[in-house]
What does this fold into?
Amino acid sequence: MRRSTDRGGADPLHAGTRVLALLGDPVDHSLSPVMQNAAFAEADVDGVYVALRCDGGDLSGLLRGLARAGGGGNVTLPHKQRAVSLVDEPTSAVRRTGACNTFWLEDGRIHGDNTDVEGFRRALNVLIDGISGARVLLLGAGGAARAAVAVFRDDGAGEVHILNRTVSRARELASRLGDGQVQVLQEPDALLAGTYDLVVNATRLGLDPEDPLPVDLEKLDRVGALYDMVYRPEETRLVHQARERGIVAMDGGEMLLQQGAAAFERWWRRPAPTEAMREALQGRAPEGAGARRLDGASGPQGTGG
Ligand SMILES: NC(=O)c1ccc[n+]([C@@H]2O[C@H](COP(=O)([O-])OP(=O)(O)OC[C@H]3O[C@@H](n4cnc5c(N)ncnc54)[C@H](OP(=O)(O)O)[C@@H]3O)[C@@H](O)[C@H]2O)c1
It folds into this structure.
């Protein structure tokens, strides 16, 4: 059987090789196998990373079985919430966000983390110099938005405004993770002439190039910086609009890299070789998907797993 992954100069697979897997549906265009196998080869660790499409019924057996066998992996859509109840030791990031995207065995117990939180934090730190006291506009109220609010609270952001198509979902998020500093905007008009140090897009808008913009930056008075969690082969429309207005902006590629680096560190207990991972993401992609550059030149889109 031909393996679809390349372990570079690493030793051949053998009986002791750790198997790590991405569990989700769909997984066929995920960039995680390319990124993680490059990291394993660079760090010379004895593991292999594969993507396994699975439905909700198979998730428990696969996740627990892989971990109990000494492996681990990631969980992506639509199973991140279901995975929370399957791990024995959830981190506080998992408990707060209600989502688990990384699992592994430690001291005989199955641990789970949500590295989207750390990935978003690290990506933001590449974009701007900290968010202490920042006035933030968050677009969206799904799983990725929860990770963002956890970072805003932990890192001392000032007022956070959430705008979401479904207002009740934004309210749920504010009451789950907010602390009085998080306010829900009822409608887009509430944004008129708003001033924000940071705008974050955590909606799905932008995954399809035909999507409308999640916010029209023209309507805002001033925006200091913009982070679009969506990543695509080319610059997203939102990042494009921001840069045209002179706003420093970045797409979701850096968050993808950094959540993967944080997962590597949980599995292997050592710093991730981020440059090798970045190069793998930029230079290679799953079969049929084309290459992608993190600065947005060509290749497949991703959904954060
Ligand atoms: N870069 C990364 O590493 C990374 C990691 C995680 C996620 N992401 C990206 O973040 C985005 C959100 O992911 P998620 O996991 O939070 O998904 P999710 O839980 O399904 O949430 C989707 C969000 O998008 C909104 N939305 C969907 N369709 C919309 C539309 N037509 N008009 C307006 N709003 C719409 C939803 O609003 P409602 O509540 O009204 O449905 C919700 O706020 C995705 O683009 C994903 O690719 C990136």
Residues 253-268 form the longest helix (16 residues). The chain is about 35% helix and 20% strand. The pocket of NAP is lined by residues 116, 119, 140-145, 164-166, 169, 202-205, 207, 229-231, 252, 255-256, 259, 303-304 (CB under 6 Å).
